[in-house]
Write a structure and sequence with these properties.
single chain; mainly alpha; 24 helices; globular
């Protein structure tokens, strides 16, 4: 008997072994939704000046619909799109965004940013000194967030308004926030980017993945060099804004009691570092934050859940709503990624690249991996986690062919995902999200009514730009290049057994 359902048959079970999405025109057509996705975002940004995360949502929807028209089996096509959303790793990320939205709202309601502004006042920080302080503070918050884009939504509302009051140069201030987020994410053992990349890169001889702590220690010297140079540039170039030290302006952002909210943030950091489980960290941090905030009268029960007429408000609902745009954008993005994978377009390109002679040596292989990483990351609006999920197996296969150590492959890929490819002005999810938040803050605070351009922010994201230079030098000079040795690996394995 035929099922009567609003959904396609077999949706819950997924694809059968004989089902494969196919397109008129061949496997490369599976790349078309992604091409349309990025093209629409570029047009909306460059031609119409619409700089928002909604750009990629619109492009994703158009791309998926055109892919539908070119698919041979419409039912299989939509099952492919939906399977991209329902995969555990990607569904996990969507839920994490919702939790982080709640935690971020909790920190804002507890005025943690006001506490940090109070510290800056104690040390009389303004202009470039305050921007440097924001760079470091963003790093601290990003270490605990586990996801760069989630950290961005937490940090911009905290530091942008007081930064403007204290004479910070607005584009440099946003550049410091984005740079600090990537600096912190590179240091975080609980980073989703680090953990995911490490899990995709395995040993040629044992099939074991690399330890995340090893990756962090291997690339620490490069990260600290980039951070130090960035810090100097932020201090030098961070001033130049309109300094306004009026008691009324600063008073609304300065509150030493907000530092109490460092307690739940510390809980998040400790649990994430100890367990490497972001769900546990966020859960305990939210519970701790609620108890701390209520106990110290930073907020009350009506701030957690409030009902006004037909409107439901409060920390939980507002926190989830603050992440709705990025969650919806990721839903379309995950569907497009799955179409490229199941449609065979990515595999076809990978096979073509692997056949070139220059990819048979380590330098050539790394160059191909570098360009693929950066290209895919740009196509996916600078979202490193989906890009890693997309090209991880390709980089693993190519690296194993030339005996590149999995730890080298891991930090090399992460470097390529954290450089210029995440801050392309016309499509970067980080720059567009920042612009959206700044526009909302402009509407909320009259003193922050400043027009920013995506290109001005791009030029000031020093950490990512310096990582681009370091990434190029990795390929050209072979800095840090390590290789696998079968006999050494086997000896180490025997020693561990004994």
């Amino acid at each position: 008997m035929r099922k009567n359902s609003l959904f396609l048959e077999g949706d819950i079970m997924g694809h059968s072994k004989n089902e494969r999405v196919e397109f008129y025109g061949g496997e490369l057509i599976s790349l078309l939704p992604t091409i349309i996705y990025i093209f629409v975002a570029m047009i909306l940004s460059l031609k119409f000046g619409f700089l928002s995360i909604e750009n990629v949502t619109v492009g994703g929807m158009i791309g998926i619909l055109i892919g539908f028209l070119l698919s041979k089996n419409k039912n299989i096509y939509w099952k492919t799109v939906m399977s991209g959303i329902t995969k555990p790793g990607k569904a996990r990320l969507l839920f994490i965004f919702a939790l982080i939205g709640c935690f971020t709202k909790l920190l804002v309601c507890g005025e943690i940013g006001n506490g940090l502004v109070w510290i800056s006042q104690i040390f009389n920080l303004s202009g470039g000194a305050f921007v440097l302080f924001v760079f470091i503070s963003s790093m601290v918050i990003a270490v605990g967030s586990g996801a760069p884009i989630a950290a961005l939504f937490a940090v911009v509302p905290l530091f942008y308004p007081p930064g403007v009051i204290l004479g910070a140069n607005p584009p440099v201030l946003i550049g410091a926030i984005i740079s600090g987020i990537f600096f912190g994410d590179n240091l975080a053992p609980s980073s989703q980017v680090t953990v995911t990349t490490a899990s995709t890169q395995t040993s040629k001889y044992t099939d074991d993945s690399v330890n995340t702590v090893t990756v962090i220690s291997d690339r620490m010297k490069y990260i600290l060099i980039a951070a130090l140079i960035s810090a100097v540039l932020f201090f030098i170039n961070g001033g130049g804004g309109s300094l306004s030290h009026s008691a009324e302006a600063i008073g609304q952002f300065s509150n030493p009691r907000g530092l109490i909210m460092l307690i739940p943030l510390s809980v998040l950091l400790i649990i994430c570092i100890k367990t490497k489980n972001l769900f546990k960290g966020l859960s305990y941090a939210i519970i701790t934050g609620l108890i701390t905030g209520l106990g110290f009268n930073l907020f009350n029960l009506t701030d957690i859940i409030s009902i006004s007429g037909n409107n439901l408000g409060g920390i939980f609902i507002e926190g989830i709503n603050s992440m709705s745009s990025i969650i919806i954008s990721c839903i379309f993005l995950f569907g497009i990624i799955e179409v490229m994978i199941q449609g065979g377009g990515i595999k076809k390109i990978s096979n073509m690249l692997s056949n070139f002679k220059f990819t048979q040596n380590p330098g050539g292989a790394e160059m191909v991996i570098a360009f693929v990483c950066m290209g895919v990351n740009m196509l996916l609006s600078g979202a490193p986690l989906p890009a890693i999920l997309l090209i991880g197996s390709f980089a693993n296969d190519m690296g194993q062919k030339v005996d590149l150590a999995p730890s080298r492959r891991t930090y090399f890929i992460m470097g390529m995902m954290n450089n210029i490819s995440v801050i392309v002005p016309f499509c970067s999810i980080f720059i567009m999200s920042s612009m959206t938040m700044v526009q909302n803050l402009n509407a909320q605070y009259q003193f922050a009514n400043i027009t920013l351009s995506s290109f001005s922010i791009f030029k000031c994201t020093y950490f990512c730009l310096i990582m681009t230079v370091i990434s190029i030098l990795w390929v050209i000079t072979g800095w840090g290049r390590e290789f696998e040795n079968e006999s050494v690996i086997q000896n180490n394995a025997q020693q561990e057994i004994m």
